[in-house]
Amino acid sequence: MARAETPLNTPISDITFTVFDTETTGFAVGRHDRLIEIGAVHVKGNRVLETETFHMHVNPERSIPPEITELTGISMETIEHAPNSLEAIEAYLHYNEKANSTIWVGHYVSFDLLVIKKELQRHQYRIDMPTTIDTLDLIGYISPSKHMLDLEIYASQFGTRIYNRHEALGDALTTAHLFCELLYHLENRGKRTFADLLAISDMSKRNIQF
């Protein structure tokens, strides 16, 4: 996938964002834990396009721990006939390409990017990783006193909708509505262009190794 560059002076309202989330067998995705679900939804014009969602379970080709099944509702039966991670990621990329969306948004997005990158590496596949926006950075800019990481807490504090937690699509939808509220606050502070958004959510400032 070739990475398309969005002009820095592009109004935020003109950009189609992909808000996404992943579920995994655990947090050690750089080693043995694997992807089991991807969910995503597009945002444009400060509006969540709920009719344009993406959701897919993924066969991790390993067992799912009981505590993960309890948390996510995803069992071995759920993923028995699901595609492998490469097939699922390719479908997700196609979903983005159809909407001409090259900017991904997530809540603690560095983890979800790591999941995608490690799964592609396992299949000896590589893509140019997209520009990303982390809602945690936007929250830190708007309300610097907030230190919790929990998505549901933030959604409650900003008065946005909360969907099924620890389900990839549910968390993506929750994040998308939170993201729209954050964009509204940014607009009120005069932050209206892609350059403004990048200055607030800059992955290069974070010491994260992928």
TrEMBL record:
Q: Which Gene3D superfamilies match?
A: Ribonuclease H-like superfamily/Ribonuclease H (3.30.420.10)
InterPro entries linked to this entry: DnaQ, Ribonucl_H, RNaseH-like_sf, RNaseH_sf
Q: Which domain of life is it from?
A: Bacteria
Matching CDD domains:
DEDDh (cd06127)
> Is Nuclease given among the entry's keywords?
yes
Domain (Exonuclease): give its ranges. 16-188
Kindly state which keywords UniProt assigns to this record, in alphabetical order.
Exonuclease, Hydrolase, Nuclease
User: Which GO biological process annotations does it have?
Assistant: DNA replication proofreading
Q: What is this protein called?
A: DNA polymerase III
